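Quick question, first post here. What does this chain look like in 3D?
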Amino acid sequence: MITDTHLPDSVPAMNRLRGFFAYAKGGTRFLDLYREGASLVAGHRMKGVGTGLKNFLEKGSWGRYPGVWRSRAEKALVRQFSGYASISYFPTVQSCLGAVAERAGASGLAAVHDPGCGEVQASTGSGPLVSVWRPFLPVPEASWLIPWLPYSGTFMPVVLLGPHPLFLQGYAPNHYQFALVPRLLSGVEGFQEEACENLWNRFSHSLWHRCGPYIRPGVTPAVYDRLFSLFLSRGILLSPDISSPSVLPLEASDGEIARFINASEEFNG
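> Answer (accepted):
Ran it through. Tokens below.
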């Protein structure tokens, strides 16, 4: 499930994030499969995003001025996710799901479906289904859809598509957030999906279940901390939360793949 994950104190402080790697103070390089709760699926410093933000800032400090950015963002969302009557925005996943549940009233939410985790989080409600779209996966059918934009979850709003507009009083995204939406949606298109699938297949191991680039281990929560610590000691940073997927890189060397396979074997051994 999409969650606000936080890295434990055992993870060293990083001084550089680039591509699919995190660099700790002292020079240690980690293959980063966490990438902020699998939000940064296309890697740190995704191509075109920095340029887009720079171009936006060069057009002036917008503040409270009306701008064209929201309409452009929503046109891009409608192009990719057709069939929804409204687009709403929230600062967190929790506030988003809370608004849908409140709208559902007594019927409650039926479930929250996150294909990247390979799970449906069931509920006692008989109301609407909320589903999550993640890059490189098909768009699921659902009453409400959360497109998980490939960027930092703390930097971008949570987008909700559905049959009715919902609002969180006092919250509205900034112009620069709207300006990035089209670039984020198109940013993963530069990667050839067939080539990525061939690469991800090379990470295959019986320890892991995979859906696109998203992986989750076939272990119980009781032993997940041991799995996380082992991989960290081998220079691989996983999601710290078993309920949130880790995400494979879109580019990797033979050595990095071997390190992942060897750590998986070591844990199973």
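The chain has a mean pLDDT of 86.
The domain at 14-42+191-268 is CATH 3.90.1150.10 (Aspartate Aminotransferase, domain 1).
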